[in-house]
Amino acid sequence: MSLIPSFFGNRRSSIADPFSLNVWEPFQSLTTDRETAAFANARIDWKETPEAHVFKADLPGVKKEEVKVEVEDGKVLQISGERNKEQEEKNDKWHRVERSSGKFLRRFRLPENAKTEEIKANMENGVLTVTVPKMEVKKPEVKSIDISAA
User: Fold this and answer.
1) CA neighbor of 104 nearest in space, from 68, 65, 55, 63
2) Dihedral, CA atoms, 28, 29, 32, 34, nearest 10 degrees?
3) End-to-end alpha carbon distance in the chain
4) pLDDT 10s digit of each residue in the chain, 150 long?
5) Would residue 112 be called left, alpha or beta, if left means φ above 0 and alpha means ψ between -120 and 50 degrees?
6) How far apart are CA 128 and CA 80, in angstroms?
7) Nearest to 126 by CA among 43, 48, 54, 17
């Protein structure tokens, strides 16, 4: 029992549990699901090599069956998926929940030199790698012309 009156409801579940402090978040009501919002922006790196565009996404705890890699309109790479919440048992007492869950969706407009029909995706150790090969840039053919004397 707290000696300080609470104007925002009971934010502490137990004095004996030092990890149960729930901090009042004034903007929490602006999002529908705080956990979904935390996972919605999956971090993705995009690098370009001479042969391909390579996308790497850190998706720890997500199975490859829970991830979709798609190409829309032939030029938009879409990576989406969902990490489900862990099942809660009635007798479980959670001290802290920091891992996020929810849906994520990222879209990237691919450059003109992308070979969208040859895209490959691989998932290993929680890292999704999407490789988009590039079309070979044809060097202009140069033809020498002999100059004759007049």
Assistant:
1) 68
2) 10
3) 109
4) 445 544 444 444 444 444 434 444 444 444 444 444 445 567 899 999 999 999 999 998 888 999 999 999 888 999 999 887 777 777 888 788 777 778 889 999 999 999 999 999 999 999 999 999 999 877 788 888 889 887
5) alpha
6) 11
7) 43
Strand partners, 30: none
Structure tokens at 110: 């691919």
116-121's contacts with Cβ under 8 Å and 24+ in sequence apart are: 116/71, 116/74, 116/75, 119/69, 119/71, 119/77, 121/69
What does the alpha-carbon distance between residue 97 and residue 79 come to, in Å, rounded to a whole number? 26
pTM over 0.70: no
* Residues 6 or more apart whose Cβ sits within 8 Å of residue 107: 72, 76, 77, 78, 79
- Report residue 112 as tokens: 């003109």
| Structure tokens given for 66 | 């829970």
Please name the residues in contact with 112: beta carbons below 8 A apart, sequence gap of 6 or more.
Answer: none
